[in-house]
Design a protein that fits this description.
Layout: H1 5-21, H2 35-59, H3 63-91, H4 100-131, H5 134-151, H6 157-160, E1 161-165, E2 168-171, E3 174-177, E4 180-184, H7 188-197, E5 199-205, H8 208-215, H9 217-231, E6 245-248, E7 255-259, H10 266-274, H11 290-296
Helix pairs in contact: 1-2, 1-4, 1-5, 2-3, 2-4, 3-4, 4-5, 9-10
């Protein structure tokens, strides 16, 4: 098996580096570090090793060894379930929860990244064997990684909607943003705080597909959570009136939201909303159907 050393090592190296490049902790603070890093790095290396070893196994006609790829896929699905359960437990302690749809999207992402590491390692090993050159194999592996990563790149809210500043007003105890009722704020002090220090935004969908996507409650929860995490939130567990709420204008499908943030910068709020990912489970495409296209005319 020494003659397969270059094939295996190049595959593991390419897959491992690919998983490292995909490993990052941002404002969402997930995966946590350093413990979360260790978990995902080890899983990524295991995925890369399985992808790299598959080529020598096929060459030696050890077809039973390839079944480990199927077993690995099952294990990664189980890992997705564990990630989901972990995030659901964490979400209970958030002042502004992510929501089930956002959690499911994150869990799917981490499962997919293991598959990317495995595929990168497989293509690298196969190319190294075919061209008899590890450098060429690593080049093909890098190209595979970039192509898959680009193809899996999701949309952001800015791709499907325009985000502009909103104006907060009150009609008695009813708080409104650009005429859309957000919530009932009975406390006079809270109303004064909203008028003097809160900021608001309006999300205008570009088409009927975007209107249906932004109407999804899970997508709106993700927008609320991202805004609260990035700008901070002036509330505690016993102050529900300061929880940001994204409401839908039922007349035109626009979304409005007010937030009593630590950093009351409306431009930062607009940018936080624009860079919120469009969740896979929230995507709707009514314009792809004959009835939807006809109704939109």
């Amino acid at each position: 098996m020494d003659r397969y050393a270059d094939i295996v090592i190049s595959g593991i190296l390419a897959g491992g580096i690919g998983r490292i490049l995909l490993l990052r902790a941002d404002y969402r603070q997930y995966p946590s570090y350093p413990r979360g890093y260790v978990t995902h790095l080890v899983l990524g290396l295991i995925a890369a090793a399985l992808g790299a070893i598959a080529v020598p196994a096929l060459i030696e006609k050890e077809y039973t060894a390839v079944t480990f790829l199927a077993l690995a896929a099952q294990q990664f699905r189980d890992i997705r379930s564990l990630e989901r359960e972990s995030l659901e437990r964490i979400d209970k302690s958030e002042l502004v929860p992510r929501g089930d749809c956002y959690i499911e999207d994150i869990a799917k992402t981490f499962e997919a990244r293991n598959y990317i590491a495995m595929l990168t390692a497989l293509i690298t090993s196969l190319s190294t064997y075919y061209f008899k050159n590890a450098g060429t194999g690593l080049g093909f592996g890098a190209a595979t990684f970039l192509i898959v990563q680009y193809s899996l790149r999701g949309q952001l809210v800015k791709d499907i909607a325009e985000v502009v500043k909103g104006e907060i007003s009150f009609e008695g105890p009813l708080m409104k943003v650009d005429g859309v009722v957000i919530m009932n704020v009975g406390n006079a002090v809270a109303r004064e705080k909203y008028l003097s220090r809160a900021i608001a935004a309006r999300i205008i969908p570009r088409d009927d597909n975007a209107r249906a996507t932004l109407g999804n409650i899970g997508q709106r929860l993700a927008i609320q959570h991202n805004a609260a995490i990035q700008l901070g939130i002036r509330k505690d567990v016993d102050e529900p009136e300061f929880t940001p709420v994204a409401r839908r204008n039922t007349e035109n499908g626009e979304i409005v939201m007010a937030i009593f943030s630590v950093e009351p910068d409306v431009e930062c709020l607009i940018e936080a909303i624009r860079r919120t990912p469009v969740l896979e489970s929230s995507k709707r495409k009514p314009l792809d159907s004959p009835a939807g296209r006809k109704a939109a005319d």
